[in-house]
């Protein structure tokens, strides 16, 4: 999924002639602490302002053009949603402008749109269950995991890979599979030397990826 697929064109960015009052009102209406600034003639994204930049200004009729703008922060329309999420995290913003190759403003992406896209890509709402496997980095191959899981008649619906903080030589692979009963898949993985860390209990089947989504939501809640 690309940035252009998540565009919100209803949001109207500020212009250099916009007032501080207008900026504060838009931040309040959109529940954001950052607003992009677009030059109305060229439609170029020329920078952005933060709430902290204007919150102490007493003259709210002062215009944006009187301020020193922060450097533009944006995603290119052809960039993947993973890059959009990375930019939001790096710059701690809820709204990320999207531009074309000439930096012409096209729209914005909201944090909630990124979360919905990631949820869809990971099939979080789809029935199934999750298995987590600890694998040494040197032994990590997707093909064998896929083969072992599909041999038991299950399909992989989503996959995440992370490096545990305390085990730099290992990877933790979480797989959302189509089966709700994971016992056969787990047994097959364990027979082939894999360490599975997700308990095989009905009340824990859906926990892992849903928990990861909640953690991501809190992480992106900037």
Automatic annotation (TrEMBL):
Keyword Transcription carried by entry: no
PROSITE patterns from the UniProt entry: CBS
Keyword set, alphabetical order: CBS domain
Keyword Phosphoprotein: no
Pfam families: CBS
Residues of the CBS domain: 68-126
PANTHER family: CBS DOMAIN-CONTAINING PROTEIN, CBS DOMAIN-CONTAINING PROTEIN CBSX3, MITOCHONDRIAL
Name used for this protein in its record: CBS domain-containing protein
Lineage of origin: Bacteria, Pseudomonadati, Balneolota, Balneolia, Balneolales
């Amino acid at each position: 999924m690309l940035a252009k697929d998540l565009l919100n064109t209803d949001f109207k960015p500020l212009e250099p002639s916009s007032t501080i009052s207008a900026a504060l009102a838009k931040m309040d209406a959109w529940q954001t602490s950052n607003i992009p600034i677009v030059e109305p003639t060229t439609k170029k994204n020329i920078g952005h302002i933060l709430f902290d930049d204007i919150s102490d200004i007493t003259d709210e009729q002062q215009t944006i053009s009187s301020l020193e703008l922060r450097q533009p922060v944006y995603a290119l329309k052809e960039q993947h949603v993973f890059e959009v999420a990375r930019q939001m995290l790096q710059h701690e913003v809820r709204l990320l402008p999207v531009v074309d190759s000439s930096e012409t403003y096209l729209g914005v992406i909201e944090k909630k749109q990124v979360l919905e896209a990631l949820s869809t890509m990971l099939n979080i709402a789809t029935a199934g269950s999750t298995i987590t496997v600890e694998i040494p980095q040197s032994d990590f191959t997707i093909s064998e995991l896929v083969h072992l899981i599909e041999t038991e008649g299950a399909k992989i619906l989503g996959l995440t890979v992370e490096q545990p903080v305390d085990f730099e030589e290992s990877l933790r692979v979480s797989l959302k599979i189509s089966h709700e009963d994971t016992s056969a898949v787990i047994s097959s993985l364990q027979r082939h030397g894999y360490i599975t860390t997700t308990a095989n209990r009905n009340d824990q089947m859906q926990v892992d990826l849903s928990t990861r989504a909640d953690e991501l939501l809190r992480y992106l809640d900037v």
